[in-house]
């Protein structure tokens, strides 16, 4: 089974989510949890962007021992120097340099010719390689770049010392089959790519970040990048908890493994949500409040008989204690009885029937029937003559 490296960028791309601003201590707390989660590489920030980010990246690199810590840098010597000062105390220092390669970015943002972009990229990678044992180079907006230009610039940066090449879908534009094609094209056409890891970095503008990442893995990506809860610029990045659980649950299809400790998923998700202030949507895959909640009578009955009828992931696998049978207007008598028993009520069948009917009446009046409501109904029935 092939091993895929997990590159977490919650503290860099994730922190670029609108409205998120983590302080040094919050970043360190998240970094320690990411280490427990088992990521291979964590991007702790962008050291040249501010003194605060520099300090946080440095403290994380000096503290975290079980994974490689990296920091983002533009193709400037000053950014690379700043990254080295922040990261040099790390267990396995690594820099992440990026430069845009798409016609749109080269023309309008960089205002450079393709030849100038190649020259800048090569110079920056060669300079970084004098300091860093590992250099990752990203072709920003790779999915809207010309394939043959990509092949050319990638060959040059590998010659200059890059050992990981990232092909980001910066604006979340690609589709699973296109992204797979890009990885295959680069692997087959870059002459010196042997021993070099190709990395996938997907954004979720069209809701395809996780599918695109899985597709890249199948097409030969040896590293996937993403964030916890899928937070990040605009619609966010690929959610690492979703990718890792998909690889585990669909082992029949994906013959790949990561070093992630899936049981740490819930704790990691909760911490990131709390410290960033970004709430996890209730219906979010794997970690949403409703991901293991069953509301309809048919589903509840099925799950009570055999959980696998409606659950493909066991809550335990991702660090959640149990599933949750939510009592609402679609619920049936089986789940109601189970809830009453879990509260410690032992009602006769007749009383239980009456209580169930009061509960059904209430679902017509209230959007959400709480445990307190149920408790009150059951207490009434138990105490009445
Ligand atoms: O999405 C992107 O292109 C990035 C780069 C900095 C790698 O985040
Ligand atoms: Zn990104």
Automatic annotation (TrEMBL):
GO MF terms held by the record: 2-isopropylmalate synthase activity
Enzyme Commission number: 2.3.3.13
Domain Pyruvate carboxyltransferase: residue ranges: 4-266
Pathway the protein contributes to: Amino-acid biosynthesis; L-leucine biosynthesis; L-leucine from 3-methyl-2-oxobutanoate: step 1/4
Co-factor requirement: Mn(2+)
Top-rank lineage group of the source organism: Bacteria
Binding site for Mn(2+): 13, 201, 203, 237
Keywords: Acyltransferase, Amino-acid biosynthesis, Branched-chain amino acid biosynthesis, Cytoplasm, Leucine biosynthesis, Manganese, Metal-binding, Transferase
Transmembrane segments: none
Reactions catalysed according to its record: 3-methyl-2-oxobutanoate + acetyl-CoA + H2O = (2S)-2-isopropylmalate + CoA + H(+)
Function of the protein: Catalyzes the condensation of the acetyl group of acetyl-CoA with 3-methyl-2-oxobutanoate (2-ketoisovalerate) to form 3-carboxy-3-hydroxy-4-methylpentanoate (2-isopropylmalate).
Subunit structure: Homodimer.
Protein name: 2-isopropylmalate synthase
Top-level taxonomy: Bacteria, Bacillati, Bacillota, Bacilli, Bacillales
Gene it is expressed from: leuA
Residues of the full protein shown: 1 to 385 of 514
């Amino acid at each position: 089974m092939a091993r895929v490296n997990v590159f977490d960028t919650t503290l860099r791309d994730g922190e670029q989510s609108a409205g998120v601003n983590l302080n040094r201590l919050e970043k360190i707390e998240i970094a320690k949890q990411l280490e427990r989660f088992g990521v291979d590489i964590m991007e702790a920030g962008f050291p040249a962007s501010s003194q605060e980010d520099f300090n946080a990246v440095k403290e994380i690199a000096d503290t975290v021992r079980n994974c490689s810590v990296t920091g983002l840098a533009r193709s400037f010597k000053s950014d690379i120097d700043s990254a080295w000062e922040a990261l040099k105390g790390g267990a396995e220092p690594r820099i992440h340099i990026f430069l845009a390669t798409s016609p749109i970015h080269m023309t309008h943002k960089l205002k450079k010719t393709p030849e100038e972009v190649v020259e800048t990229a090569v110079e920056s990678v060669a300079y970084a390689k004098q300091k860093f044992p590992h250099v990752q180079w990203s072709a920003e907006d790779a999915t809207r770049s010309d394939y043959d230009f990509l092949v050319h610039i990638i060959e040059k940066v590998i010659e200059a010392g890059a050992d990981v090449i990232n092909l980001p879908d910066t604006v979340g534009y690609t589709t699973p089959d296109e992204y797979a094609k890009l990885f295959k094209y680069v692997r087959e056409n870059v002459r010196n790519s042997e021993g070099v890891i190709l990395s996938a970095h997907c954004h979720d503008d069209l809701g395809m970040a996780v599918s695109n990442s899985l597709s890249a893995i199948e097409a030969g990506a040896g590293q996937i990048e993403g964030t916890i809860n899928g937070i990040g610029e605009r619609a966010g990045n690929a959610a690492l908890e979703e990718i890792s659980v998909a690889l585990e649950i669909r082992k029949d299809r994906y013959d790949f493994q990561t070093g992630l400790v899936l049981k740490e998923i819930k704790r990691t998700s909760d911490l990131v949500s709390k410290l960033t202030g970004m709430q996890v949507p209730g219906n979010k895959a794997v970690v949403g409040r409703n991901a293991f909640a069953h509301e309809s009578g048919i589903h509840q009955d099925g799950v009570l008989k055999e959980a696998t009828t409606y659950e493909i992931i066991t809550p335990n696998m991702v660090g959640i204690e149990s599933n949750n049978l939510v009592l609402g207007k679609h619920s049936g008598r089986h789940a109601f009885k189970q809830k009453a028993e879990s509260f410690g009520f032992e009602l006769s069948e007749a009383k239980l029937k009456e209580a169930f009917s009061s509960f059904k009446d209430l679902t017509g009046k209230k959007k959400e029937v709480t445990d307190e409501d149920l408790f009150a109904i059951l207490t009434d029935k138990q105490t009445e003559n």
